[in-house]
Write a structure and sequence with these properties.
By secondary structure, this protein is an all-alpha fold. The chain contains six helices and no strands. The radius of gyration is 23 Å and the shape is elongated.
């Protein structure tokens, strides 16, 4: 085992000594969690928060749409597109969750190389990024869809203009998915690469 503070080469992929003698208690707790656990948490956060954002947006839009449709039934059909935009937010989370799940391979050793820890942290970060961005994107699309339904009920000419605003609100979640995929492009957890033993210092 090697002290991570003494690793000079970024190519080193041997096991790292994350003992409490080198770190504080909180950092020691984080460092001792298996990278596959970080990856699984990232997958869960990505999907769960994306569904929260999608459901929140649908709730906001549907409440206004059903209320306005009582007075103007003509708005029911074309304003369903606002619900579809909200649903797309959950699909973004599913896409990243599937991609991250494919990057966690089977492992036979309890000691993970340093590259696996990096991959776990990157997958966790990507899950946080996509999850939270999709929450706010879903809320944005939901509020815009609500305004679109109410505006369309009053003035049909406002529908297309409000629809453009919804498209830009939904694009916020798509940006997060793109960045999340880029963050985890070259990462994987498991025995997909040869194990590199810890370097032994040469005698002087």
């Amino acid at each position: 085992m090697v002290n991570p503070n003494s690793i000079a080469s970024s190519d080193y992929s041997g096991p790292i000594d994350y003992s409490a003698s080198y770190y504080g208690l909180s950092t020691y707790f984080i460092a001792t969690i298996a990278p596959s656990t970080w990856g699984a948490i990232g997958i869960g956060i990505s999907l769960a928060l994306s569904v929260v954002g999608s459901a929140w947006g649908i709730w906001i839009t549907a409440a206004s749409l059903m209320g306005a449709a009582v007075k103007e039934p003509r708005i029911r059909s074309k304003n369903i597109i606002s619900i579809i935009f909200c649903e797309a937010v959950a699909i973004y989370g599913i896409i990243l969750a599937i991609i991250l799940n494919g990057k966690i391979e089977k492992f036979l050793n309890v000691e993970f190389p340093a590259t696996d820890y990096m991959a776990g942290y990157m997958m966790f970060g990507a899950g946080l990024l996509v999850g939270f961005c999709n929450v706010f994107s879903g809320i944005c699309v939901g509020i815009s869809g609500s305004g679109c339904a109410l505006g369309d009920a009053q003035n049909p000419a406002l529908f297309v203009k409000m629809l453009i605003i919804e498209i830009f609100g939904g694009a916020l979640g798509l940006y997060a998915v793109i960045v999340g995929i880029l963050m985890t492009t070259s990462t994987s957890i498991g025995l997909t690469k040869e194990y590199v033993p810890a370097p032994t210092p040469s005698p002087k």
